[in-house]
Specification:
The chain has about 120 residues and is α+β, with helices and mostly antiparallel strands. The protein has one domain. Helix content is about 15%, strand content about 35%. The protein contains 1 helix and 8 strands, in the order H-E-E-E-E-E-E-E-E. It has a 4-stranded antiparallel β-sheet with strand order 1-2-3-4, with no helix packed on it. A 4-stranded antiparallel β-sheet has the order 5-6-7-8, with no helix packed on it. The longest helix is centred in the first third of the chain and has 20 residues. The N terminus is likely disordered.
Length: about 120
């Protein structure tokens, strides 16, 4: 039993070290919010968008410096669940109850699209 525990501990320590060496690090949010983040998408090593929410306070966050700093846009709607960009400017966010939002200006503004459903 002690050998198994030791092997598991060594495996976890080795993986944590590998993640740290590959450039992964824990990041605190510089934009306080009660929202959970559900999806993130980077178009390159610097430009990324994250989405999430809770109740009627969804959020879209955007970085242009590889995640060191994030700007925030609150959206008065249900949870935003996923984000995808085809390039730095054109992206789509989908959420609960059939919500679809689209941007063509890098997230400066979002327009609601109609997908024909409101099913959760």
């Amino acid at each position: 039993m002690r050998i198994t525990t030791l092997l598991v501990a060594l495996f976890l320590a080795a993986n944590a070290t590998a993640l740290a060496q590959s450039g992964w690090f824990v990041q605190s949010s510089n934009v306080p919010s009660p929202n959970d983040l559900f999806s993130v998408f980077f178009t390159d090593s610097n430009i990324g968008t994250a989405v999430g929410g809770w109740d009627f306070s969804s959020i879209i966050r955007r970085t242009t410096d590889g995640g060191r700093n994030w700007s925030s846009q609150e959206v008065n709607t249900y949870w935003l669940l996923s984000v995808f960009f085809t390039d730095n400017n054109t992206g789509t966010v989908v959420g609960c109850c059939g919500l679809i939002f689209r941007t063509t200006n890098g997230g400066a503004s979002w327009s609601q699209q109609h997908g024909g459903t409101n099913v959760t």
